[in-house]
Amino acid sequence: MRKIGYLGPRGTFSDQAALQYLGEEQAELVPCNTLEDVCRSVIEGICSEGILPIENLIEGSVNPVLDLLLETPQVTIQAEFMLPVAHYLLAPSERSLSEIKTVLSHPQALSQCRQYLANHLPQAILVPVESTALAAKRLVEEGGHGMAAIAPLASANRYGLAILDKNIQDQPHNCTRFVVIGTEPVPMKNDTYKTSLAVSAIDCPGALHSILKEFAWQGINLTRIESRPAKTYLGEYIFYIDLEGHRCQPEVAEVLQKLADESRGISILGSYPASRRLQGQEPEPSMATLQSLRSDIDLIDRQLVQLLGKRLKLVKRVGELEQQQGSVKEPSPPKEQQVQVAAIRQLAVQQGLSPDVVEKSYRLLLDYFVQI
Ligand SMILES: O=C(O)C(=O)C[C@]1(C(=O)O)C=C[C@@H](O)C=C1
Description:
This protein is an alpha/beta fold. The chain has helices spanning about 15-20, 35-45, 65-70, 105-110, 115-120, 130-140, 155-160, 205-220, 250-260, 275-280, 290-325, 335-350, 355-370; strands at about 1-5, 25-30, 50-55, 60, 75-85, 90, 100-105, 125-130, 145-150, 160-165, 175-180, 195-200, 220-230, 235-245, 265-275. It folds into four domains: about 1-85 and about 170-185, Periplasmic binding protein-like II (D-Maltodextrin-Binding Protein, domain 2, 3-Layer(aba) Sandwich); about 90-170, Periplasmic binding protein-like II (D-Maltodextrin-Binding Protein, domain 2, 3-Layer(aba) Sandwich); about 185-280, 2-Layer Sandwich (Alpha-Beta Plaits), CATH 3.30.70; about 290-370, Chorismate Mutase Domain, subunit A (Up-down Bundle). About 40% of the residues lie in helices and about 25% in strands.
């Protein structure tokens, strides 16, 4: 039977996430004390998989998890999914909010209820605890009269606590994205994939631009980009990037190789099936109105001309610099041109365009730019 490690004890959001992922019939759920322990249980083979919260709708990234994924190359992301996150204010028995002097919970939960706490419990001291369910459990064990916990409904039921208030999170539709980690990479099949990676950029002007342009060049859509300190010196960063595609897809593999060559280093955190929410995000073309499709086409036509304008400016700038440095470049030799044209034709095919028509247009434009 599969064993799934999660942040325990029973009754946490991570517990619910593990149940949503596999259910108790299909897996044994193994509660861990910390997120590091979840990771360790997978590395040491105690668990086949582990569940980690990675991103919240209100608070953004769960930074310790981003750090953990980077620090443990032995594990890879195998899946992702969203869990609705509703917070409850719990106490050992019914009491008024004015009696509450201390609120215990996981730091993420306390942050997700910041406005509620400021408005309804301004007198309370907030005490961070390793997990929401542990906060609920401590109420039962310590039973202090002025104590409350923020935790899921599952914790109220499991530990027999009174519900003082419900849905106290700052956004009604709060949710957290969880990832499943394991030791085996996910093979590419017929699915919609995402790849997560961390790139350590070289500290120079345009460093981020040169990373992003590789994706744009290959037409790869990014779903998230985020920077974290590299923890070497102030000002050096690691960029966490999520992209649409599997690391084995040729265009993704090409960009990853380029980044590996041109950056300080990259870590591939995993290629995994994209959650259904992401898959459903793109409206089907047939669902869009004819009018909005036509206006999208008009916009692309304008962007095409704007891009040509940008290219013109670059060509002129190159010309000026060559004049200044007295190093006017000879036209590319036929072989170099052939390589360039072949790449353009390949890109055309990848995009479902006629390579002949694209080559013709490209040559026409090249002739025009050469004359400038
Ligand atoms: O303490 C819990 O219940 C957890 O599962 C941890 C955690 C988190 O770290 O983000 C999980 C989901 C919620 O966003 C709040 C807390």
